[in-house]
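Chapter summary example: a protein plus uracil.
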Amino acid sequence: MRAVDIIAKKRDGQNLTDEELKFFVNGYAAGEIPDYQASAWCMAVVLKGMTEAEATAYTLCMAHSGDVLDLHHIAPFVVDKHSTGGVGDKTTLVVAPLVACHGLPVGKMSGRGLGFSGGTIDKLESIKGFNVSLTTAQFMDMLAKHGVVVSGQSADLAPADGKFYALRDVTATVESLPLIAGSIMSKKIASGADAIVLDVKVGKGAFMHTVEEAEALAKLMVKIGQGVGRRVAAILSDMNQPLGDAVGNALEVKEAIATLHNGGPTDFREHCLTVGGKMLELAGKATNLDEARAMLAESLANDQAWTKFVEWITAQGGDQSQLDNPETLPQAPLVETVTAPRTGYLAAMDAAEIGKTLIDLGGGRLKKGEAIDYGVGIIFHAKIGGKLTVGAPLLTIHANDATKLVAARQRLLNALSWSDTVVAAPPHTLKIIDAV
Ligand code: URA
């Protein structure tokens, strides 16, 4: 078999066999197929797609490119969640300890920023000392001792996805239903969770722009997971505006901390209760979502979730003093509040453009492996439906360079649309898919 023939076959819109997919995935993971051929293949998949059978075979090859964990000797039932990627999505930071403090172990492998979307691992790394590079043994040890662990992509678990993920980030090949499904579900299968809640984002700041596309992705992932014996549900959630108010790594950690102290923006808090609630429900800890949400709201109010968060972050090496004093997290030197250019209702926010602005401020990557600035970002003082009078605070930019700050100000103003008449805040949870 030759990589070039497999690329050509997909370019010409033909279906790949299980053997061809295995050859390509394993060849790339082993370093035998170079980045340029893998990039060409990813682009061919973006343009020509995959059948359900190809997507399933691709996912299983990726999952089996490394160890596939069986965690049952450590914990009888482990849960996990995964987002398809959005702007301002810091859900894992809150949901992992929130669910774990109910005695339900959460073992999770997360990613770095991808395209215009942020990544949990980058956010966690803005905390001094936090170690995301765990071996399989360390992952299992953390789970056994603390009931919660979040690792970066490791050399042991789904290593093929680690390589494809970093490549897709910088080759405009993220937006593909089978590549996203394969990337997410290979990690989920490899990291051994019994139940998985998929947070499938829909809208301008997501890789799936319509409910139909998102539903197709959700159903494919649910089917792949159920096919290998996992309990899986998907929540379709709105990403036509950033989630919460903060966009940028350390700023998002601060917002997660505020939420764990029973504060934080309402949309973000509600989202955490829904995603975490579904995890409790899938694990049989609650009989329905309302009951599960109420259990979680209680643990935000009584500090149990916060206590678990501190235990988790410090167990992975994070500096507790930064959690207790969030103002000591990375902070950009230039901070400017931009005011509303007019009176009116905020009608739309181009969340992808906001995500790209963060990258240009230095908070995301344009090339593989690039260093990022954890302190830069944006805080929004209004979201869709908000009424502002001219001159009222609209957003605050945190930058490390005056030229970048000026460019970001213009770009962000252009990313917002206004209306003279009342605009309703959009619904956040759009659909829940339990079975296919
Ligand atoms: N999240 C992932 O882990 N992979 C993707 O491809 C998209 C979102």
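Key point: The pocket of uracil is lined by residues 84-85, 111, 114, 165, 174, 179-180, 183-184 (CB under 6 Å).
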